[in-house]
Design goal:
This protein is of the alpha/beta class. Helices cover 31% and strands 25% of the residues. Strands 1, 2, 3, 4, 5, 6, 7, 8, 9, 10, 11 and 12 form a 12-stranded mixed sheet that branches. One of its GO terms (molecular function) is homoserine O-succinyltransferase activity.
């Protein structure tokens, strides 16, 4: 089934070329179906890339999904045009009185800062509090996962000695958990971060469950026991080329980032990396949408 997005959204053409089923608002309005209403708080600097990455997997399920994008009013984007934001994004004040079946809070390149030093932290805290009563389930990604752990559960992030950067193996710790239904016992996922969270603190928290972990990359998937908050510290939404683009960008800026681990064939940056985590990316998003959103949300619940 399709995702419902604005007809003019740039991601629409890209997704259609990839044979992802998308439906513009006019066509969707003619169907007698109540789509799932998903709000995406996009904190990534390259917002159009993040939009396409997320929509690619949200559109790969049997469920019809209506997408709304949210931006921070307390932060001025330097890398996305004002016209794009004004056309496709809402502020929190515009959605405060609405309810949503699901929400995604993305990562953000601010992990070098203490949470309180992020210029939109107060607004983000208000939004995260709001999700408890206005969203059935929220999926938090990378820094968004660390922010949720800190805000909702008091578990802080910790700096790493070097960037966790590459494709890592992960073990499924709770195979009966709905979030990892269909997963292999060991699966690959990308990471790109300078901070981490403690597995022991998560295991010892009465409201949390650690779902998947990597020997080298640490905590990856975890969930609140009520399913309200799902957290992924890596980036299953990344394409095969995303880490390559980050690596080349860092070096262009004079940042001596090491070659992403287990990424380039034969560790050679001149060779094309292969997409080896796509199937588990699809499973993660479809499991979240089905078991934590669709199966849990009431029919009459949902924002416009």
């Amino acid at each position: 089934m399709p995702i419902k997005i604005p007809r003019e959204l740039p991601a629409k053409e890209i997704l259609e070329e990839e044979n992802i089923f998308v439906m513009d608002e006019q066509r969707a309005a003619s169907q007698e179906i109540r789509p799932l209403s998903i709000l995406i708080l996009n904190l990534m600097p390259e917002k159009q890339k993040a939009e396409t990455q997320l929509l690619r997997y949200l559109g790969n399920t049997p469920l019809q999904v209506r997408i709304s994008f949210l931006r921070m009013a307390s932060h001025e984007s330097k890398t996305t045009s004002k016209n794009h934001l004004d056309t496709f994004y809402k502020t929190f004040e515009e959605v405060r009185d609405k309810t949503f079946d699901g929400m995604i809070i993305t990562g953000s390149p601010v992990e070098h800062l203490d949470f309180a030093d992020v210029d939109y932290w107060e607004e983000l805290q208000e939004i995260m509090d709001w999700t408890n009563d206005h969203v059935t389930s929220t999926l938090h990604i990378c820094w968004g996962a660390q922010a949720a752990l800190y805000h909702h559960y008091g578990i802080d992030k910790h700096p790493l000695s070097k960037k966790c950067f590459g494709i890592f193996e992960h073990d499924v710790l709770t195979p009966k958990e709905r979030l990892v239904r269909g997963f292999d016992e060991v699966f690959l996922a990308p990471h790109s971060r300078y901070t981490t969270v403690s597995a022991e603190e998560i295991k010892n928290h009465p409201d949390l469950q650690l779902v998947a972990e990597s020997e080298k990359a640490g905590v990856f998937l975890l969930a609140s026991k009520d399913g309200k908050h799902i957290m992924a510290t890596g980036h299953l939404e990344y394409t095969a080329s995303t880490l390559k683009e980050e690596y080349e960008r860092d070096h262009a800026r004079g940042v001596n980032t090491e070659i992403p681990e287990n990424y380039y064939p034969d560790n050679d940056p001149d060779r094309r990396p292969k997409h080896r985590w796509k199937s588990h990316s699809s499973l993660l998003f479809s499991n979240w949408l089905n078991y934590y959103v669709y199966q849990e949300t009431p029919y009459v619940w949902g924002g416009e």
